[in-house]
Write a structure and sequence with these properties.
homodimer, 7-stranded parallel β-sheet, 8 helices
């Protein structure tokens, strides 16, 4: 019974996601769903990307948070269109929330749209939104064992961004174990090492991202 | 309709939690529900506590994880009774899961029981388990703004453990902002600064914990 209800919810979500995808495609908006634990660096990644690509691409951002509009304010300072979704306790974004947000986005004026999901390594993995790519930000201080503990999320990742590598000298993080775990769960996922606050490795991320947009 | 269903679920959970609490009380088991983001240091906290208090108190651990038994294996090496709950995708522990785990715990031989919840700053906040105290581990690399973003979780905290303070020199973490946020959300929460991997500040945590047990 519970499983049937869940299936119906996910089925309805998928239908809405397909509609979102059609809307995004018809406007030529390449869309990336950014997921991670709280504080892994989703907002920093988006801010770095905006700063580097602002002259080349028109970027928009949809910020998903349980509460507050801190991230939307930070992104808004970069002068790009941004919409805040507050889930009011909800643990993930869904396609319906995205549909409502897209209705308020100037899609004709956007080439690249980031959706910053709610900080949570579990629930957002189950809800497709209509995005073209999903990226998971995995922060080095969280430890190398996270892929084994949250396999569903890492299985969704087109790219895993290993963030905060500037902290590696101070942590007991086993890079080989981390790579091995991701290869075991999602062999096709691109792994990109970077530090969004210092800028190290951000070029690799931009190369991957812009290559995906050209496909 | 959805809200009513949720209320019924939470109501049923609370009834079971009360039964768990009675069982724990009748066995004299002081129980702490440890919650945090993925990788904030829940297991390290529990390991440090076991190492320091092993001679004084009989400790047991219930490990909640979406997947894997890595934490239970690490804790088991310390020679304490440990039970792993795998939620198989579920984003929180509930009182029913705890009831099942308690049935397999040697409660008569335990003074202090840790429940390590699923790594998630959202959903576990809604589910009381029957514990005596709730502590939230907030890791410094996650940033000082987390209480504003996840207020429901911080509002549940009897103590907030500001972990990984050994990384403060390398991070843009505003301690005053962090304290201000917690005071605004849960003025009564104890804030304890520590680094579970180096041991710094762990004494403060043990002082607080053992004081709660004597109350």
């Amino acid at each position: 019974m519970e499983i049937k209800v869940l299936r119906n919810i996910l089925g309805a979500n998928e239908q809405l996601a397909n509609k979102n995808r059609e809307l995004l495609d018809s406007n030529g908006v390449f869309t990336v769903n950014v997921m991670s634990s709280p504080g892994a660096g989703k907002t920093s990644l988006i801010l770095q990307t905006i700063k580097r690509l602002k002259g080349e691409l028109r970027i928009g951002v949809i910020e998903g948070d349980v509460s507050s509009s801190l991230d939307a304010e930070a992104v808004g300072k970069e002068g790009v269109p941004v919409i805040q979704i507050n889930t009011d306790g909800g643990c993930h974004l869904d396609a319906n929330m995205l549909q409502n947000a897209l209705a308020n986005m100037p899609l004709a004026d956007i080439d690249l749209l980031f959706i910053e999901n709610v900080g949570n390594l579990i629930c957002p993995a189950d809800f497709v939104l209509g995005e073209h790519k999903k990226v998971v930000v995995a922060s080095v201080p969280e430890g190398h064992d996270k892929p084994y503990k949250y396999p569903r999320m890492f299985n969704e990742a087109d790219a895993v961004l290993m963030n905060k590598i500037d902290l590696l000298p101070y942590l007991d993080f086993n890079r080989e174990e981390f790579y091995r775990a991701i290869k075991a769960i999602k062999g096709s996922a691109e792994i990109i090492e970077l530090a969004c606050t210092t800028g190290q490795g951000v070029e690799d991320w931009l190369d991957w991202l812009t290559a995906q947009m050209k496909k």
